[in-house]
Structures are given as C-alpha cells and as structure tokens.
Amino acid sequence: MWNAIALVSASPVPTLSNPLVWHRLQFAFTIVYHYLFPQLTMGLALLIVVMKGLALRPGGEVYARAARFWVRIFGLNFGIGVVTGLPMEFQFGTNWARFSQLTGGVIGQTLALEGMFAFFLESSFLAMLVWGEKKLGPKKHFAAAVALFVGSWLSGVFITTTNAFMQHPVGYTRGPEGVFALADFWTYLLNPWALAQYAHNQMASLVTAAFVVTAVGAFWLLRDVHLEQARLNVKVGTIAGLVASLVVAFPTGDIQAKLVARHQPAALAAMEGRFESGPRAEIHLIGQPNVAERRLDNPIGVPAVLSFLAFGTFNADVKGLNDIPESEWPTSVELLYYAFHVMVGLGTLFIGLMALANVLRWRGWLERSRWLLWMLMLAFPFPYIANTAGWMTAELGRQPWLVYGLLRTADGASPTVHAGSTVFTLIGFAGLYFVLGLAFLFLLGREVLHGPDGHDASEVPHA
C-alpha cells in the first residue's frame, strides 16, 4: 500500500496551520514506516521458494531448515505490515476524501483486487507454511511457498498499478464534474509505467531481502555458531543480492528513468538539479541545488551522460527547470534531488559490495575476511534507506500533482478535516508505531539469536 498521496514537501501555503501540510506529513510517516515491512516480505517470498525448491533434492534438509527460519521471519514482518497498512486505507477517506471521490472509480478496482485476491492468498498460505509442513509433506509445502510468493507479488502488481495511474494516467475517462471512470481495464493494468515501476520495485525488494539474509549469515559466522546455516545464508544472500542489485540498475532503473524523462520532464530536471536546457546534458555526481538563484552549487558532473541515459543519444536536448512554468515544478526540488542521489549512490555501492563478497566467497576467502563479514552484517539497513529514497523520488517527482497533469495535491485533501485533528492522530500513530517497532525488534532479535532450530546452548561459545 505504498501509493503515497505525497511524501514530505512544501505545501502551497507552508504554514503549520494549513491542514494540507499535516495531511501530507501524516501519510508520509505512515507509508514510510509501513513499507519497511513489505519490502522484506516480497523479496523474502522469492528466496523462500528457492530454498524450498532446493530442499526437494536429495540431501536438501539444510535448505529446508533455512526455509523454516525465514518463514518465521516472514511471519513477523507480515503481521506488522498488516497492522501498519490498515491506517493508510482509512486515510483515503479521512484525509483525502476529495481524491477518493474523484478517482475511486479507477484506483478502487486495483485496491479491491489487492485485498480480495493477493492479501487473502498471501495470509492463507502463510499459515500453511508456518504450521502445516508435517501434514502437507515436502511437495505440497513447496506448493504453499509458491502460492505465498504469488500472493505477495500479486499484491505488488495491484498496488504498483494504482500508483502508476497517479504517475502516468491511462485507460480512464472523466465526467463533467471531473470524476474519473475506468474506460479500459487492460490499458490501465498494462500501463507501461506500471510494468517498469513494478519490475524495478520488486528487484529492489529482493535487494533488501538478500542483504538481510546475508547479514544474518554473516552474524552467525562472526559468532561461530550455526555454521552450516550461516554459510548457506551468505551464499544465497550474496548471489541474489548481486543479481538483484544489477537488475535494479539495468534494465529496470534505466527504463524507469527514460519514462520519467519522456513524461515528467520537470521531475528529471529537479532530480539532477538542472536549470538550463540544452544538448549533451551532464549527469551530476554531486552538488547542492540552489533554487533561489537557479543553479547547482559545487557540481561534479560527467558530460552528455544524462542525455544518453534519458533519451539514448549523447546529443539529446534535456529540458531544464527554467523552461518549465514554476507552478509545475516539484514542490521540493532540494529534497527530490538528494533523495534521488541517495538512491543511486547506495545502489552503486550495493553492486560493488556484493560483487566483492561473491568473488571472495568463490575463492574460499570470505569466512577469513572478518572485515567483509562485518560490512555485510552492518549493511542491511542501507537497502531500506535506498528503497525509501527511491519512493520519495517517485512521489516528490510527481508533485504538485496527485494524478499527474490532471489533479493537484491541494485539490485532493479532505476540506472538513482541520490541522489539529490530523496532528493529534499523527502523534498517536508515532507513539503506537514506536511500541510496535520495539516489539518487532525484540522478537526478530530473539529469533536470530536462537538460530534456525531454536536456542542450542552447545553452539553458543563460552565467554
């Protein structure tokens, strides 16, 4: 449910008494917190299928043990994800009633499908995976894992399609009062933006899962416990992490960037801090956008690369913000610029780290390279940061529109909900989510410390 109405950025009237500021801040907080959990479960669902499939081979019990452990971790994430996802559904009616009224005839289709098919499929087969292994047997239990994976990734299809309509609306008609209606379901579902965004997002979720799996394996190796399972986790995690990190960058990230260049030129210009138009546009590795003076301070760039990445030729003309009406600029150019560069920078580091880990593992040196094990263990938060920055890039780039080019964010909020009510509920969400986060970290830490088969004192080194 990450089709954010708007992540944090300046409102048309940036005062704390403006309800729109708090509507956006509340949705930003709840969506960012919620998506910490689905991004792991979606990637983990695929890795569990791989482990369960390998467990069907002769001598595959080691993979079965690994799958059992990660199913428990999946269950913890799924439970917190459900709890934190429900408030966002209510916010469509409480905070964004006008948006829901106008677009419900379109986005309600995929949101309903997500709830009816993907969510129920995912939750039903999760119960079978957690408690039904002995009764189902290996092959049926593997089939349950596949069904869990299908449900998890179907959920991604429907939600990404909803968000893609907000980024690049297709397959709709509008009535005389501006109400959207679905004209062609398949055009809506097969929106080119949705296909590219879905592939990019799912590979990013696999990066998160791979780094988490690798981090747990590295932790066990550093403690010299559960060694067989530790080696398996590091092997599966580093291979999946390298493949997913590469695919996130190319082709999925490349396709997504070209769509932004074609359909959201203001977003592309802001992402690169580009104010002047012209050919052979350079890509900026670093710099600080100075919106007041309309320039990028202290830039370090590579000439012509942005033109090539955006349009496939080094001589392509890339429009700058100066040639776009300021009313159509993203409402927080600076935040968009930094979110994009954090995402790209971390993604590049992921490729390098996973490539190095695979080389050393292939040469048999990884377990002796404790410095690298420490890096792999401590790196797991960074895919969460990269995913958050990626979604901030997508949502901030869409501003100031809720439905790009058709419905402005300021016109979609609930007109009768005042700032005080939204602040009160935001404080309540923050307190509740803090408690949930502590409980989640405690349960997760206990599972990791106990290992794949529960606590075994014989494997814990003595002080």
Map the helices and strands.
Blueprint: H1 19-34, H2 38-55, H3 61-94, H4 97-131, H5 133-167, E1 172-174, E2 180-182, H6 185-189, H7 192-223, H8 227-263, H9 265-271, E3 278-279, E4 283-290, E5 295-302, H10 305-311, E6 317-318, H11 333-362, H12 370-378, H13 381-398, E7 401-403, E8 407-408, H14 419-450
Antiparallel strand pairs: 1-2, 3-6, 4-5, 7-8
Structure, explained:
The chain is mostly helical and 463 residues long. The chain has one domain. It is 68% helix and 7% strand. The protein has helices spanning 19-34, 38-55, 61-94, 97-131, 133-167, 185-189, 192-223, 227-263, 265-271, 305-311, 333-362, 370-378, 381-398, 419-450, and strands spanning 172-174, 180-182, 278-279, 283-290, 295-302, 317-318, 401-403, 407-408. The strands form four sheets. The protein has a two-stranded antiparallel ribbon. Strands 3-6 form a two-stranded antiparallel ribbon. It has a two-stranded antiparallel ribbon with strand order 4-5. Strand 4 (283-290) and strand 5 form a beta hairpin. Helix 7 (192-223) packs antiparallel against helix 13 (381-398).
